[in-house]
Amino acid sequence: MLCSGTGPRIAPEILRLLPSLRLVVTTSAGLNHIDLSECRRLGIAVANAGEVFSEDVADMAVGLLIDLLRKVSAADRYVRQGLWVSKGDYPLGSKLGGKQIGIVGLGSIGFLVAKRLEAFGCSILYNSRKKKDFVSYPFYTNICELAAKSDVLIICCGLNEQTQHMINREVLLALGKEGVIINIGRGAIIDEKELVQCLVQGEIGGAGLDVFENEPSVPKELFDLDNVVLSPHLAVFTPESFKALCDLLIGNLEAFFSDKPLLSPVMFE
Ligand SMILES: O=CC(=O)O
């Protein structure tokens, strides 16, 4: 049994050194650090954090979006720097209600983001690997078309070969000058260099980012932009979600060692 976070990659070289390995338990929801096809080939089961983080991550996506649209962090800096007194009122933000929200990845996190934003009066559109029968939101197979129809793009999918740099310059330009992007998935789903360029040149309206391509390094160009909200990959972390994660981890180990089905097995495709 091997326990992993999102840290060192569980690569074929590691798996080869552990010939008796039968189970990998990761404390993350994301699986991009585990070579799943090699685990499947070797008959190694994998369990992850399942849905224990989904609510907190969905809350964070909404938090970043409200912060960005209503300029909460930027206005906070303005007040602290004494600029309200010297320069007067701060520019107005824009309303959340009525926005068209394009969700990329309608898994458990994406679905909870959609539910939350519906309650704010937003319309939901989405892209996912497959159309979901349990929702009536418009489904877009083409990510550029989704971006063109959306005021806000929220990245909720996992990182894999298909999704790496899926949000490229073309998608960002389709989102447009007023469009904003929120990323609570993985940094490398967006081509970060292109994102930075689009933000610096005003080709998109703003970004709320919890994840980055080369964490903990964050492109310095973003530090001076008031239409960008930055967060150090902490959307999943609350004391409550940690407690739920510990219970799940223990539950998975107990299940494995008593030959019962895992509580949060990763289904190989
Ligand atoms: O980002 C954190 C996770 O995948 O759990």
TrEMBL record:
Gene Ontology molecular function terms on file: glyoxylate reductase (NADPH) activity; hydroxypyruvate reductase [NAD(P)H] activity; NAD binding
GO CC, any one term: cytosol
User: Under which EC number(s) is this enzyme classified?
Assistant: 1.1.1.79
Classification via InterPro entries: D-isomer_2-hydroxyacid_DH, D-isomer_2_OHA_DH_cat_dom, D-isomer_DH_NAD-bd
Tell me the ranges covered by the D-isomer specific 2-hydroxyacid dehydrogenase catalytic domain, including all copies. 7-266
Which principal EC class is assigned to this enzyme? oxidoreductase
GO BP field: photorespiration
Family note? Belongs to the D-isomer specific 2-hydroxyacid dehydrogenase family.
The name under which this protein is listed is glyoxylate reductase (NADP(+))
Q: Which organism is it from?
A: Carya illinoinensis
